[in-house]
Specification:
about 230 residues; mainly alpha; 11 helices; about 65% helix; globular; disordered N terminus; Isoprenoid_synthase_dom_sf; Squ/phyt_synthse; Squalene/phytoene synthase family protein
């Protein structure tokens, strides 16, 4: 695991400490920075509702990012934000499919309507978050099949949204959590070692779902164990 510092106030990295810790298993510094920029973008999309005072402002933010990514896609001058600048560099270095990232924004707008049904939350997770994660996989291992990331990404996204109070409590109970976790455990076994840093946060998502809090040391040890064994 790399010991290079990551500043949580940097808008080109995720605020989620577990995601940042997972990325430390990526040895190459530039590759790690590129992956973190994509993960920060995924986090930004997921957390827009928590950063605005009313849905219209959230809709404006999503539209701003659609237009920024279209500028990157089309090779035009890109409107400035630390993250848009970082994503422009990532796209250039790794030939990202910008249309996939653009399309990933739309399902996140569902969050602006209030607490989500499980069906809508799955749309956010599968069509939004997992789509961005698949582009991060292209950075880490261009020839790897990113389809194996879908179910682990789904569980981590739903657990995070549950903690934030964005899921309908009647549809996100303990039984559903156990079912999603079993699926995630099986799927992680099929994730190539090169892509494991992208699914390591799933290892502690069960704690999120159940409202448990691990110590910082326990989180680090859990991530290390999953990275070494490929199992959660």
């Amino acid at each position: 695991m790399s010991d290079s510092p990551i500043l949580p106030e940097d808008e080109t990295v995720p605020r989620d400490e577990v995601v940042r810790l997972a990325a430390q298993f990526i040895e190459d510094a530039q590759t790690r920075a590129d992956v973190l920029a994509l993960l920060a973008f995924a986090e930004l999309l997921r957390d827009v509702p928590a950063r605005v005072s009313e849905p219209l402002l959230g809709d404006i933010r999503y539209t701003w990012w659609v237009e920024a990514l279209e500028e990157i896609r089309d090779g035009r001058k890109v409107r400035y934000h630390p993250l848009s600048a970082a994503l422009s560099g990532v796209a250039e270095r790794h030939a990202l499919d910008m249309q996939v990232l653009i399309d990933a924004i739309e399902p996140h707008r569902l969050q602006l309507d209030g607490r989500l049904s499980l069906r809508d939350a799955l749309s956010v997770a599968d069509k939004g978050q997992a789509a961005v994660l698949a582009q991060a996989a292209r950075v880490l291992a261009p020839t790897a099949d990113a389809a194996c990331l879908l179910i682990p990404a789904r569980f981590h996204t739903l657990a995070t949204m549950k903690v934030a109070g964005r899921l309908n409590a009647n549809e996100a109970g303990a039984e559903e959590g156990r079912h999603l976790y079993r699926e995630a455990r099986q799927s992680v076994k099929r994730v190539p070692s090169a892509l494991l840093p992208l699914v390591l946060p799933t290892a502690v998502a069960a704690d999120l779902w159940q409202g448990r809090v691990r110590s910082a040391l326990s989180v680090r040890l859990k991530l290390l164990w999953v990275f070494v064994t490929g199992r959660i």
